[in-house]
Amino acid sequence: MVRFLILLSIFSFIQSAFSFDCSLKSHEGIGQKVLTSLEKNTISCKGQKVHLSFDDGPFQNSTPQILNELKMRNVMASFFVTSKNLELKPESGKIVSETLNSGHLISSHGHEHRAHDIRLDSAGRDVEAPLTQSQREEDIKKSVSYLNNVTNNEFNKQSLKLFRFPYGRGAMPSENELRVMEERGMMTFQGHSFIERLKEYRRKSPALHTLSGFGFSHLGWNHDSGDSALPYSLPDEDKIIEYVKTNLFNLCKASTPRVALFHDTKMINTVAVPLIVDIGQCLGLKFVSAQDMVKEPTISSGGVFIQKEDLAKGVVENVLEGLSGAEDSGVVNPACTNPETLQCWSEYTKRWYNDCEGDRSICLGGRWYSRQDEIIKKNCQLNDS
Ligand SMILES: [Zn+2]
Q1: Taking the domain 49-328, which CATH number applies?
Q2: Where in the chain is the domain with CATH 3.20.20.370?
Q3: What is d(CA 162, CA 70) in angstroms, rounded to the nearest whole number?
Q4: How far is the CA of 220 from the centre of ligand 1 (A)?
């Protein structure tokens, strides 16, 4: 009998050590599978703040489902609408007004979903021609007009007026794009490091100046869900589980609040986002509204949020954030992806290290720097002086 009781208590200890108690408000079957696989690799999010943002909608097949799931969880998100959708399908205007009435922020993603500044692929080729100044103004004007029309002018009355450039181009250029702008005589830069040049770009960017003229602030992102690479239709279960886990892992690993980029046009988010919220909350994530997120100091200092008053000043004080934004845009030096050689930022573990020690060059944000570089001196506590 005693032996039985000992066995029983050992069994229940093992069970409680490995069971992950988390209530799922929907998609329980697939959610349990995520929980089971997380049990072996528990992560803790320690109160990390996350704001969910959705681009490119509305889309009739998925946006209403996402709204419904967010409502069940009382989570407030922002929706960056591509107003061309409203021109093509006027009936989808109802989704936008419902979104706003549910307490979410309606924001502009422009009308045509065109790049407002130079946009190159990873091989340095032009993907599309950037909008001219008059096209930029026309695009924003059209977007504002459609959003006001479908919301009975409630869009303009929102306390926070946000714009997000398609592909981030206009506020979040890659290092290569800045170089090409200079080569083509579009802009000149005094600074040598990427971050200095990025600051100058944000001071001079005609696209950002145009936004300021319309009273917009710009919200970029510092967490990419990775859904751009996924199909519009619902992928198989294994893909969904992997996507949920990768997002949770990266959100929890980050050391500062995250503005998370999703697309409400992708069906995967009708299942994955509710699971990311439910499981994320169990792990300690705090989902906050746009209004709360923009008050976070690192969101402004890192240039993720550029408020209208500062649009012409180029506020990028936080070098690490700026560089992590650059990494999101795909300019990662392949030489920096070898975990053996990483000093400050590890692609491998997806985390920043506070101490940069060692006698090699330092890899920061996906590119190499010498130990003498100002960025390294400022951000890495080097042991040599
Ligand atoms: Zn977009």
Answers
A1: 3.20.20.370
A2: 49-328
A3: 20
A4: 11
